[in-house]
Specification:
single chain, 245 residues, alpha/beta, Rossmann fold, 7-stranded parallel β-sheet, 7 strands, 46% helix, NADP-dependent 3-hydroxy acid dehydrogenase YdfG, Sc_DH/Rdtase_CS, KR_dom
Length: 245
């Protein structure tokens, strides 16, 4: 367990798998105090126990980012456990792709709720305290889908463009809080498992033929976290070298 750098209190949403799990693991092993949030608490418990066995400082709590009260309670739990929150990583996201003419309105609404409102709720829950202390770090996970639109991904891409817009708006509104938006390229994850549309699911299999491991994104996030308070790594795009996307 590396504890050489200053330990920070860090929240990770969507921490039960993929990028969230990898990021939480890396940050705990670097000596940070990390609070895991997700709906699948059995996975959070298993991850927390594994990291505690390694000597890490980690806690977890059930979290639905679409509910502001849930996010506020998550932050309060973190503060009661480890102290004021230094970093929030708004990572929770869903990706049920489909062509617009499939009219999967419920799935559109879910993406907006998790991918956009979830980020806003994460910001709302930590911003007052960070502003009062004059420091803090908000890290929002977007996507290469937030830089270019592709067929069957219009709504998903719209939510990820929104994450970039929200992030840059927050960055411009503050001179004391660091804001980072991370846009992963193709990464091995469970996101594609939520695709119910057959056409989109088949296209995604080809799209994900070349993919990064989640720890590649975790390393990028850790790099942004470790910078001093006067250095804001505003945006990172992380892609597989061999991928054209």
């Amino acid at each position: 367990m590396n504890t050489q750098q200053t330990s920070k209190v860090i929240l990770v949403t969507g921490a039960s798998s993929g990028i969230g799990e990898a990021t939480a693991t890396r940050l705990v092993r670097q000596g940070h105090r990390v609070v895991l949030g997700a709906r699948r608490t059995e996975r959070l418990q298993a991850l927390a126990e594994r990291l505690r066995d390694e000597g890490g400082q980690v806690a977890y709590r059930a979290l639905d980012v679409t509910r502001l009260n849930d996010m506020q309670d998550f932050v309060a739990f973190a503060e009661a456990t480890f102290g004021p929150v230094d970093v929030v990583i708004n990572n929770a996201g869903v990706m049920p792709l489909s062509p617009l003419n499939a009219l999967k309105v419920d799935e559109w609404d879910r993406m907006i709720d998790v991918n956009v409102r979830g980020v806003l709720h994460g910001i709302a829950a930590v911003l007052p305290s960070m502003e009062a202390r004059g420091q803090g770090h908000v890290i929002n996970v977007s996507s290469i889908g937030g830089h270019a639109v592709s067929p069957s991904a219009a709504v998903y891409c719209a939510t990820k463009y929104a994450v970039r817009a929200i992030s840059d708006g927050l960055r411009q509104e503050t001179d004391s809080i660091r804001v980072t938006v991370v846009s992963p390229g193709v990464v091995e994850s469970e996101l594609a498992d939520t695709i119910s549309d057959t056409t989109a699911r088949d296209a995604m299999k080809a799209f994900r033929r070349i993919a990064l491991q989640p720890d590649a994104i975790a390393r990028a996030i850790a790099y942004a976290v470790e910078q001093p308070n006067d250095v804001d790594v505003s945006e990172l795009i992380v892609r597989p070298t061999a991928s054209p996307y």
